C-alpha cells in the first residue's frame, strides 16, 4: 500500500500544548538532535500486524523513531497483561483494543486521553462515543461491529416493517414446510441480552440514560421503564410461540441458518463465512422495530490506545493520530479484519467494494456504543437470567419479574 499520513499537528499531552517535533520526548532527554534511541512498542494482534508494517516504516523514516510491533493474541489475556504491566513501565506505548475494555483501562489509570482535535469529525459519531469515557476520548477508532437482520432471500423476498409482522411471515414459511424456524435469535441457558437489545430498546427501555456529552449515566437506570415491562410480556409470548428458545445457542443458530432452515436471523458479520459456505443467498438489513421506537443494537468498536505510562507520549500520540488515523490505514485494517471502518471516508470506499460491510455499517450508524462503564458488572447476570426465565415462562408475573431485576441492578450499582 502507498502510505499517506497527516501533516503534523499540535498535540496536547499532560495538559501542555506542544508541536509534535518528537525530539527529546523519551526518558526526560531534552536533546533535539537524537531520536534514534527512542522506540515505540505497539501491541497488536496477528491479524493486523502485517497491515501496519508499511505505516511503521514510514513513521520510522519520517521521525527517526523505532517502532516495535509485538504480536499478541487479541482477548482478555492481552487486556489483563496491559493493565498489569503498564504501571511497571514494562507495557507497550500503544495497544490495540476494544471499546468494551475502556472502562477498566480508565479505572486502572493505564490509558491517556487522545487529542484528535478536528480529526474527530472524520469518524462516525457512534465510534467516537464508544472510544470516549465520561466525555473524554481515549482511543482512535478503527472498526465497528454489530448485529443486523440477515434474510435468506430464497425463503423470503422482503423484510416486514415490524417484528410481529416478521414473525408472522416466518411462521408462514414454516407452515409451508420450507423452513423449521420463523426466525433465529441466538440465545442460551442464560439468554442473550446482546442480541435481544434492539427489541428491548424498541419498547423504550434502554439500559441507561445519557449525559449531555453522550456518555452513559449509571445513575439514570432506564431498564425498569414501563416499556421494559411490556417487553418482558413479549418475551413470554415469543417463548411460548417458539420464536425464542434458550436452547438455540449462537453456534446452533448459525448452523441452522446456514442449512437453510429459517428465513431470518439476528446475526453479526462473524457468521457470514458459514452462510457463504452453506450457499445461502442473503441480504443484510436493519432489525424491524418491535415496539413504538426504532431499536438500537449495541455497537462495539476496536481501535488504538496510548498508555498513560508511556515515556514517549508525544511520539505515541503522533503515531496513533496522524499515522494510524488515515484513510489508507483504515482501509488496510478493514481488508485484514473485514469490519466496517470507523472513518467515514474509508467506510464509503469499503461499502462500494463490499455490500456486506456497507450494510452492517449502515445499521451501526443507528446503534449505540456497548457500555464500557464499570456498572455493567451489576447488569449482565440479572439481565440474562431474568430474560431466560421469561422466555421459559418460569419467572412468574412478567412485569414483576422485570421490575425485580431492575431493582436488583439499581441496588448493586448503588453499593
Keywords for this structure?
415 residues, alpha+beta, six-stranded mixed sheet, 17% strand
Q: Which H/E pattern describes the elements?
A: EEEHEHEHHEEEEHHEEHHEHEEHHHHEHH
Distance between the termini: 52 Å
Work out the helix count.
15
| Integer average pLDDT | 91
Helix fraction by DSSP (H/I, runs of at least 4): 40-55%
SS elements, strand count: 15
Radius of gyration: 23 Å
What low-confidence regions span 5 or more consecutive residues with pLDDT below 50?
7-36
C-alpha geometry: globular
Question: Mind explaining what this structure looks like?
Answer:
Residues 1-20 form the signal peptide. Belongs to the bacterial solute-binding protein 1 family. This is Maltose ABC transporter substrate-binding protein. It comes from Microbacterium helvum. InterPro entries: Maltose/Cyclodextrin-bd, SBP. Residues 7-36 have low confidence and may be disordered. The strands form 5 sheets. Strands 3, 4, 5, 8, 14 and 15 form a 6-stranded mixed beta sheet that branches. The protein has 15 helices and 15 strands. The chain has helices at 46-63, 76-85, 102-107, 125-130, 163-175, 193-202, 226-241, 250-258, 272-277, 313-324, 327-337, 344-353, 355-365, 380-391, 398-414; strands at 10-13, 16-19, 39-44, 66-71, 94-98, 132-133, 136-137, 139-145, 148-152, 208-210, 216-221, 264-267, 282-285, 298-306, 368-369. Strand 3, helix 1 (46-63) and strand 4 form a beta-alpha-beta unit. The longest helix has 18 residues, at 46-63. The N and C termini lie far apart (52 Å). By secondary structure, it is α+β, with helices and mostly antiparallel strands.
Amino acid at each position: 500500500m502507498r502510505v499517506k499520513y497527516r501533516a503534523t499537528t499540535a498535540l496536547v499531552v499532560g495538559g501542555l500544548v506542544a508541536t509534535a517535533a518528537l525530539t527529546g520526548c523519551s526518558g526526560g532527554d531534552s536533546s533535539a538532535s537524537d531520536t534514534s534511541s527512542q522506540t515505540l512498542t505497539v501491541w497488536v494482534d496477528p491479524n493486523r500486524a502485517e497491515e501496519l508494517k508499511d505505516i511503521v516504516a514510514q513513521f520510522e523514516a519520517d521521525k527517526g523513531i523505532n517502532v516495535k510491533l509485538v504480536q499478541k493474541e487479541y482477548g482478555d489475556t492481552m487486556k489483563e497483561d496491559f493493565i498489569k504491566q503498564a504501571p511497571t513501565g514494562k507495557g507497550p506505548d500503544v495497544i490495540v483494543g476494544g471499546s468494551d475494555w475502556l472502562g477498566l483501562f480508565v479505572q486502572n489509570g493505564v490509558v491517556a486521553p487522545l487529542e484528535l482535535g478536528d480529526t474527530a469529525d472524520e469518524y462516525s459519531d457512534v465510534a467516537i462515543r464508544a472510544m470516549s469515557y465520561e466525555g473524554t476520548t481515549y482511543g482512535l477508532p478503527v472498526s465497528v461491529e454489530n448485529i443486523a437482520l440477515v434474510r435468506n432471500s430464497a425463503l423470503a423476498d422482503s423484510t416486514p416493517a415490524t417484528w410481529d409482522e416478521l414473525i408472522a411471515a416466518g411462521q408462514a414459511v414454516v407452515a409451508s414446510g420450507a423452513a423449521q424456524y420463523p426466525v433465529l435469535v441466538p440465545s442460551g441457558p442464560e439468554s442473550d441480552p446482546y442480541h435481544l437489545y434492539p427489541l428491548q430498546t424498541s419498547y423504550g427501555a434502554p439500559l441507561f440514560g445519557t449525559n449531555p456529552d453522550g456518555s452513559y449515566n449509571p445513575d439514570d437506570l432506564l431498564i425498569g421503564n414501563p416499556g421494559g415491562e411490556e417487553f418482558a410480556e413479549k418475551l413470554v409470548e415469543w417463548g411460548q410461540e417458539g420464536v425464542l428458545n434458550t436452547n438455540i445457542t449462537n453456534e446452533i443458530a448459525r448452523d441452522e441458518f446456514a442449512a437453510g432452515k429459517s428465513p431470518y436471523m439476528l446475526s453479526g458479520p462473524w457468521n457470514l463465512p458459514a452462510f457463504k459456505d452453506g450457499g445461502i443467498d442473503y441480504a443484510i438489513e436493519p432489525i424491524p422495530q418491535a415496539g413504538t421506537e426504532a431499536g438500537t443494537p449495541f455497537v462495539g468498536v476496536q481501535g488504538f490506545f496510548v498508555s498513560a505510562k508511556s515515556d514517549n507520549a508525544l511520539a505515541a500520540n503522533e503515531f496513533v493520530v496522524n499515522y494510524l488515523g488515515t484513510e489508507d490505514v483504515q482501509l488496510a485494517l478493514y481488508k485484514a479484519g473485514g469490519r466496517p471502518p470507523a472513518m467515514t471516508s474509508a467506510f464509503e470506499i469499503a461499502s462500494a467494494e463490499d455490500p456486506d460491510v456497507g450494510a452492517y455499517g449502515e445499521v451501526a450508524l443507528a446503534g449505540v456504543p456497548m457500555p464500557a462503564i464499570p456498572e455493567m458488572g451489576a447488569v449482565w447476570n440479572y439481565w440474562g437470567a431474568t430474560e431466560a426465565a421469561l422466555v421459559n415462562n418460569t419467572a412468574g408475573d412478567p412485569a414483576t419479574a422485570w421490575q425485580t431485576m431492575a431493582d436488583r441492578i439499581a441496588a448493586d450499582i448503588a453499593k
